[in-house]
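Key result, reporting period 2: structure in, sequence out.
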């Protein structure tokens, strides 16, 4: 900031009852929310989630669709499982992944809608 620029400062105190009535979540919840958004900060993980939004896939299918190695996909799936964005099921030796619930697809679609405004 230049020396000749001023910063507007409020010299009065207002009671913002509508804000005071809104409950701000506790710190643990806020840290969890921040961690969730960090996971969404990686384009590869977003691509995996979009692939899974089409339906259940195994690691080799996801790797093929995204043109990536199975090792790279597995690493990212581990992160997505930890934050509970994806779930999995075993069928013999094959593990199939899918979105954990409808909230994940909602977050993706609302995020996309926001950036396309």
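The corresponding designed sequence is given below.
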């Amino acid at each position: 900031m230049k020396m000749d620029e001023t910063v507007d400062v409020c010299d009065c105190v207002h009671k913002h009852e509508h804000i005071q009535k809104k409950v701000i979540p506790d710190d643990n919840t806020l840290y969890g929310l921040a961690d969730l958004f960090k996971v969404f900060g990686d384009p590869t993980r977003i691509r995996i989630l979009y692939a899974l939004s089409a339906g259940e896939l195994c690691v080799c299918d996801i790797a093929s669709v995204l043109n990536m190695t199975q090792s790279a996909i597995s690493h990212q799936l581990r992160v997505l499982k930890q934050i509970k964005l994806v779930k999995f099921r075993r069928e013999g030796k094959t593990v199939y992944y899918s979105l954990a619930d409808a909230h994940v697809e909602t977050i993706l679609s609302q995020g996309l809608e926001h950036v396309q405004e």
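The chain has a mean pLDDT of 90. The first helix runs from residue 17 to 20. This case is discussed further under Risks and Mitigation.
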